[in-house]
């Protein structure tokens, strides 16, 4: 399929169907909503390849890429997705495309004007000789040449007819998904989910198409059935023809014939693929099939069973005038079908093919072939005679080694000899004259020789086997040519079988499920009595049917076609727009979907699940039921809903059916109610152009506030509910009757429905352990608690739809709702819905949904059951929340710069945030949790425990929100560590959760420090609203009061300070080996961590001050720093704390100052004192070392002075002076030595003081001279 989009808002399309061998061109259409129109075209054509021009708008290219990803993810056996390719824009050129189209030959000239040079031509022989203008005129006789875009898309192929979407009901992918027309299911074996698997790793799950698919017997029937459900008709003649066919097949006197037809259809094979193989010259079986189940077997079997099927169809009573009977009996030549079967049976030997693993030709087909076969089959006796003759000529010793003579196809005749272990033959022709044995090859432990006798046999007989094969190939090729000549007849027969198979499947489904024939009319009405949902009724023990009466605006179709069914009274009730209210789980959505499905089935040509129905022709079904989110779309859930509704408003005509379910739930309740009221007002104001509309809603405000006025054609209904307020169990207080009755519902029973949807009573002792297990579970995503003065209920792992309903309804008076979410970055749609409800700023929502740590996946099996196969019943499946978690797992893309800045801020330990609005007070900060102690894992040297970021929000309607990001673990590969760290991080929140129950309070009474008194003491004398305010404020406080993770830091710091003190005090010993780095590094690290902890608790203290004495909202917006006393005293319009919670926050502020900040400051002061002490001791040690060094230097200097005269004297005596040599004797030397040594010692002892004095005097003179010189130089510089 090729698609081209013009920048000014038009779209063209063309696609080629290899099944029909036709090219279809779309009339160029205006493109107001490109997304939905392209979606409609892809659904209509179901392409395998989509071609786009290079100059296509970027938005269209991105959209097609998204569709490609979705098609691959949801591929099935029949729909394997499509390949997206871009071509040069010249390939889509209009002039070149016209030329290529005009030059092609026609295969069907029924709608084309064909001429030749003689202006008359009975065939297309002269078409190629026509000039260009004549060919273009002929082309324009059946193709609109003004469709520039579609002709460009057609490119190089010509089609039989142009298609228009008006021939079919317009269906979008959103409608198909919402109504569950198709729904694929992944294979349970993960190895079968690859792209290369034969069934694409998926099968049809519980869906509308899935009800009929098992009832189809032929491959072509399955293809046609899918096409039938993708393209419902709006042609009333074709629809009524299908209904008449089904009615005839279901007649009582046709029961036996219908059973025979169904059985024969199971034996009909698909001949389209075999014919394609014959046309390309490949008649061998493919796909691992055996030879006797190949092309020829398929064609022969088809011919045989088609004739039997034709005979069975002739047995149908009152069916002679039906189209499918005429197609089988008259449109297909039975003589040709018989001829094909006979010529195949007369030529192909299927028994021989099975034995020889190749396609064989029967005997008596060709005399030359028979002769070759006789020769080949007689080779065994001939080779035996040759072996006996050879054995006579061989020496006696060689006969045991010569095995005999053999024949190898394509190689010839050989003599085989035994192979010796050394690789040589046991005999090589020794002793034979005039017979040279030529060694050819070795195989199977034998050596094969070419001898004179074998060469003579080659010359005489040749290669009979190859001759047989070549002859059979030629014969089969001639057979293939004859069969291909009947290809069109075989294809028509296959199409007729597929059409009949679909009609039989529709008839069997109607009989199996108890459906009734609808009455089709041109009146714009829908009148259904006893309507049922075709899928829902299969999953419940009993189904309550409901009626539906709708009418739309009038159009020119009414009154056309005399003789067609037409109602005398065209008002099937007064409802043009039907608004349905009622509680959750009451059946509103099921009713809206069943109405659309009944209309859908009627236009498919099927019977419908109803007692009786009158259906007017409907051109399109526009559904806004389910929101399909994807990380590839840069749209929020509410944005997707808006786009779907906007498309419905633009595309709806008076003959459309519009189904809208719970529109507006993704935004604030007031905004959603306004949008719903505007939507109803738009439809009711259309007058004669109004479509048939079914709307379900929870927004009772639009009725109570008179936003929706009563108008003609506007009708209200609700699902009937029976209430029993005295029932002891909450699930027994509301009984859903699933019956549609006129009027509006005044309540949605949100709390009761929540209990039925998974809320558990916290006071139930049996549920206490389950709650704790779920709260600490690694895969937990969220939980919601609703509590009052005495009771509390909790639910885990709600999905976005549940939150949409929950957030849209305020808690009842006296009830507090606590919503806790782990890893909010992976649940962005939930955060957006909550933010829209309480009017969070865009910045705050963006921060809350920023990228977080990937939560661990929970692999715990679910116990929920869901119907998978109508025939097989129930099987375990994943819960809805698990599927939603995987679908919404990946966070949406964000700007890398913003993420980097935000992550940097979060890494700052003392960073805090406080935001205020008219309906909320939100604080964000880092909280510490204890580091686990796990064996075999070395503890971190840092005393500072790990941190996690949390948002705590107190809302004006007594709702408390807590969002927590899970940071990366220090040891992510150790499951024990991760579990313990998760438990430590959630401990405070789980403590608060468990103490909301009576058993939890009893459990924590022995833990005074951990006791959380969320509820006020009983009896409470205030109102229910005051009680809810007090409980929510206290809950907000106890969630904030989580500083126990810092206690180990303070304790460990005291121990580390004591250790450092002992090390420093013992460092004065001369034998101490303490290094400075061993003291400075721990001192610096400990001081830094204590300083960070101090900053963190100071930020807590500042945060408490801002909570207890906040600025007003207006002051925040204006940037004022003035404290609003009215807000602190509880008179402002923003969120306020209760008095008990404010006093708790003030006490917490004092505790933080006394227990933490003062202790941390004392430790910091002690660390400073230790640092000073260490440096003083180090200086003292350095002074002592310097003194010792000075004394050593003095001793060395004196020794040098003492030995200096002795050194001179020794040098003098060592000089050999001729005149004095005889006067120097050893005695003289030692006498001189003694005298000089004595004088040196006396001088060193008596004159050392004098030398010091002289050195000081000389140093003083030098200083005075230098100062005088510098002074004189300064005077010169001044002058």
From TrEMBL:
CDD domains, per database record: ABC_MSH5_euk
The record places domain DNA mismatch repair proteins mutS family at 656-672
- Gene Ontology terms, MF aspect: ATP binding; ATP-dependent DNA damage sensor activity; metal ion transmembrane transporter activity; mismatched DNA binding
SUPFAM superfamilies with a match to the protein in the record = CorA soluble domain-like, DNA repair protein MutS, domain III, P-loop containing nucleoside triphosphate hydrolases
What GO biological process terms are annotated to this protein in UniProt?
Answer: chiasma assembly; mismatch repair
GO cellular component, alphabetical, reads: chromosome; membrane; nucleus
UniProt keywords (A-Z) are:
ATP-binding, Chromosome, DNA-binding, Meiosis, Membrane, Nucleotide-binding, Nucleus, Transmembrane, Transmembrane helix
Instruction: Show the Pfam families listed in the entry.
Output: CorA, MutS_III, MutS_V
Q: Where in the cell is it found?
A: Chromosome; Nucleus
Q: What is its main location?
A: nucleus
Family recorded in the similarity comment = Belongs to the DNA mismatch repair MutS family.
Under what name is this protein listed?
DNA mismatch repair protein MSH5
